[in-house]
Each structure stands twice: as structure tokens, then as C-alpha cells.
Amino acid sequence: MKKKNHLLEGSVLKSIFLISTPIILSNILQTIYQFIDTFWVGRLGEDAVAAVSLGFPIMFFLHSIVIGFTTGGSILISQYNGRKDYEKTALLAGQTLTFVGISSIILSVFGYFTANFFLSYLTEAPYVLSEATKYLQISFLGMTALFTYTVFQSSLQSIGEMKVPMAIVLFTVILNFFLDPILMFGWWKIPAMGVEGVAIATFITESLSGILGLMVLFFCKYNVKLSLKSMIPNPEWIKKIFKLGLPTSLEMSSRSFGMFLMMFIVSTFGTTATAAYGIGTKILGFIIIPAIGFSIATSTLIGNNIGARQHKRAEEISITAIKVGFFTLFTIGILIFISAEKISTFFVPNEPELIKIASLFIKIISTGFGLIGIQMVIGGTLKGAGKTKTSMFLTMGQTFTLFVSAYILAVIFKLNEFGIWLAYPIANILITCLEFYLYKQKSWLKKEIK
Questions:
Q1: DSSP letter at 449?
Q2: What are the domain boundaries of the chain?
Q3: How many CB atoms lie within 10 A of CB 105?
Q4: Residue 437: exposed, middle, or buried by beta-carbon count in 10 A (0-12, 13-18, 19+)?
Q5: Which residues, in sequence order, are CB contacts of 48 under 8 Å at separation 6+?
Q6: Which of 10, 163, 166, 360 is 20 to 30 A removed from 154 (C-alpha atoms)?
Q7: What's the burial of 139, exposed, middle or buried (CB within 10 Å: 0-12/13-18/19+)?
Q8: What SS3 class is residue 348?
Q9: How high is the mean pLDDT of the chain?
Q10: 187 has which bridge partners?
Q11: C-alpha dihedral over 372, 296, 302, 317, to 10 degrees?
């Protein structure tokens, strides 16, 4: 009973931090996981880095799609958990796992046999293509395990259980830190496998996380305990998961497509502008971590309270989370604004011109961090209430606004990369105003899923 209280009872502020803190820590650990891979691969040389980099956008795109469908399942789980209909929460965890599992197997087989074909359009260097193909094929083999863990994580987050997923991520990060160099460079009777070794290390850690996630779901005492019966495909529930998840999948994939569009514009202004953009977006990636934590916490709490028909508490949760998101990211924004030159120097210590341009970009985007906090929380509110289409259109709108603003300012008004930097706060202001207007209509409070 105590575990359910922080979802439906007690201090709203405490509930937000109880749920968001483990999520933020888990996301930080995931980021460290990526840095560890980058650190070790960098020891193999430029070609190795290029080989791994080529496969990343493809896996990121596919992972974004699957996260969307797990969101569909998590919305349903949170609302039925709020109603204390635990038979349905367990059933929905099983149905989500089945749907995502079947989808991942199909994608895995297709991706394995077409990896070389798609990568051949991205590079003509024989060695890079060969290594990239091996890396991507092994990544596809681990896809089902990765997506199994994603379902496990989202299912537990939906009922407010965050510590176990965080513990599993911590375990895999530590394991990956030691596996990467052993498999890359060889040790004792293990031969040196280079880039392929990095992929195998990732495959092992993803497989372990997927297995551990399944064990928890099958043997846990939580409200999402799996059974073989709950995993038998039910067309009615899978249709609901698909209907709720598709907009989020499109939303997530539009974000990755937006990254490609922005890079396309930036690259036309030369290597220095591209490098400065890369440094700035790394900082933006770090800032998104707490924002995502507040967003998921809000979504979980909103879903549970709307399911429990506690609409007044749901509204209080959303208002409080908006304030927390804004002030937390606004404060971080001030600190980063002040430290922009030092941050840029850390990345590129001997490039004064690049430091100057990157510092300006960081200062400009940091002025809008508070607005990003508001956007993410409102997005979490809409998703928790089941209004995934509205959230999708808002994200697509932001991607479109950012791209158009950047093109007009940089190309038409000939402000070059400075115009691209300015496009970020402009898009943030416009979308935040639109989101807040839609939020104040309160139609999301009535979006109870039957």
C-alpha cells in the first residue's frame, strides 16, 4: 500500500521527485554507457569511430519507433493501475511485450540481411563499410533483448517503480566498461576483435538486461507480473496499444529526422560551424536528461490519477511539475550561460575560433532551457492523459518551426550560422506559447481511457 501512496496520495512535489530522480539517474547512466563506447572506440582510430557512427542513426531511429509503442502500453498500464485493476495492468504488460517482441524480431531479421545495402549509401570506404556492417548486424541481433528491456522499464515506470531498472542499468554500464577493452584489444585467450568486439560487448550487456527484465516481470510482486497467458496476442488490446503508441512513434522519429535536417543546413556553413553545432547539441542532450525525468514522472502520475478519477490532484501534479521543470532548467541554463567558454574549451582546447562560435551557440540556446522544461512536462501531461496525437503534432510543429526559422535567418537573411543559433529560442518561444494555450483548455483532464 505504501508503494501506491506516492502515486495517488501525499505531497505532489515529493511524488514528482520520488519518480523523476531514479529516471534522471538511469538516463545519466545510459549517457555514460554511450561515452564509454565512444572512449574505447576512439582508441581504435578515426575509421573505427566512423564505422560505429554510421550505424547509430539507424538504430536510434528504430529505437525511437519502439519507444513510441511502449509508451502506448505504459499509458494504459498507468491508468488501469490508478483504477487498481491489476489484472488489466499485468495483461497490458504482456500484450505490450508480445507486440514489441514480434515487431523487433521482424526488424532484426530484416535489418541483419539489409545492413550492408543501406550502409553502402553512406560510405564508399571498403574498410569502414565492412566494419560498420559487422557492427550493425550484431546490433540488430541484440535488438529483441534491447526492446524487451525497454518494455520492462516502461512497465515498471508506469506503476511508479523506478529503482530496479536503474539498478540493472548501473550493472550493465559497469560490465560494459570492462567488456569493451577486453573484446576490442583481446585478453588471455580472447582474440582482439576491434569494432566487432564493441558490438559483441553491447550485445552481451543488452541480452543480460533483457533477461533480467523478463525475470523481474515474471517473478516480481509488482502489478505488472507477467504470465504466459497474458502474452497470448489479443487483437483488441494490441490495437489500443498501437493506436496510442503510433503518434508517439511518429513524434520520436520526427525528432531524429529534425536532427538530420538541422545538420543539413549547418553543414553548408563549413566545418567550424558544424563542429560548434555538435558541441552545442551535446550540451542540449545533457539538459534534456532532467527534462525527460520530469516528463516521465508527470506522465506516470497523471495517468494513475486520471485512472483513479482524481482530476483535481492530476491538475495539481501538472502545475507543480511545470514549475519544477521550468525553475530547474532555468537555473541550469544560467550556470551554462556563465560557463559557455569553459565548456567549449573543454571540448576543443586549442581552437580559439571554434571556441568563440560554440560559446555563442551555447549561450543562445541556454536562454531557452526553462522553456524546454515547460514543454517536456506539458508533453508528459498530454501523454499521461492519452492525448498522444496532440503531443505528436506539437513536436512536429517544433521541428518544422525550427527548420524554417533556421533556413530563413541563415540563408534568406544571410545571418549564416548565427541565424541557426537564433532559430532555437524563437522555436522554443512559439511552441511553448502554443503548448501552454492547449494545456489551459484542460481537455486532457477528460481523456480517460475506457
A1: -
A2: 1-233, 248-450
A3: 13
A4: exposed
A5: 41, 42, 131, 194, 195
A6: 10
A7: buried
A8: coil
A9: 86
A10: 190
A11: -50
**What residue type is assigned to position 425 of the chain?**
P
What is the per-residue pLDDT across 133-160, written as a single tens digit (0 to 9) for each? 888 898 899 889 988 998 998 888 888 8
Residues written for the chain: 450
Q: Which of 374, 382, 410, 138 is closest to 268 using CA atoms?
A: 410
Identify which has the larger pLDDT, 400 or 188. 400
Write the burial class of residue 85 (CB in 10 Å: 0-12 exposed, 13-18 middle, 19+ buried): middle
Geometric angle at alpha carbon 285, from 379 and 430, rounded to 5°: 45
Per-residue pLDDT tens digits for 199-213:
898 899 989 999 999
Give residue 197's identity as a one-letter amino acid code. Answer: G
Rounded to whole angstroms, how far apart are CA atoms 390 and 398?
12
Residue type, 375: Q
User: Are 328 and 289 a contacting pair, CB within 8 Å?
Assistant: no
Residues whose CB falls within 8 Å of the CB of residue 295, separated by 6 or more in sequence, listed in order: 325, 376, 377, 379, 380, 383
Region 246-274: mean pLDDT is 81
Other CB atoms closer than 10 Å to residue 204's CB: what's the count? Answer: 17
Q: Which three cell numbers mark 29? A: 547512466
Inter-residue contact 410 to 420 (CB < 8 Å): yes
What pLDDT score was predicted for residue 3?
46
Dist CA 344 CA 360 (whole Å): 10
The whole-angstrom separation of Cα 56 and Cα 50 is 10
Q: How far apart are CA 353 and CA 375, in angstroms?
A: 33
Q: Percentage of the chain with pLDDT > 70?
A: 94
Termini Cα distance of the chain? 25
Decide: helix, strand or coil at residue 79.
Answer: helix
d(CA 254, CA 256): 5
Distance CA 197, CA 218 (A): 31
Q: How confident is the model at residue 448 (pLDDT cuts 50, 70, 90)?
A: low
Residue 230 DSSP one-character state? G
Kindly state the average pLDDT of the residues 287-311.
90
Q: Is the pLDDT of residue 447 over 70?
A: no
Q: Which three cell numbers stand for residue 352?
A: 580559439
Is 80 exceeded by the pLDDT of residue 84? Answer: yes
Query: pLDDT confidence of 370, banded at 50, 70, 90?
Result: very high
289 neighbors 35 (Cβ within 8 angstroms): no
Other C-beta atoms lying within 10 Å of the C-beta of residue 95? 25
30-83 tens-digit pLDDT = 777 777 776 777 667 667 766 776 776 677 777 777 778 888 888 889 888 888
| Helices 126-141 and 194-219: angle between axes, nearest 10 degrees | 10
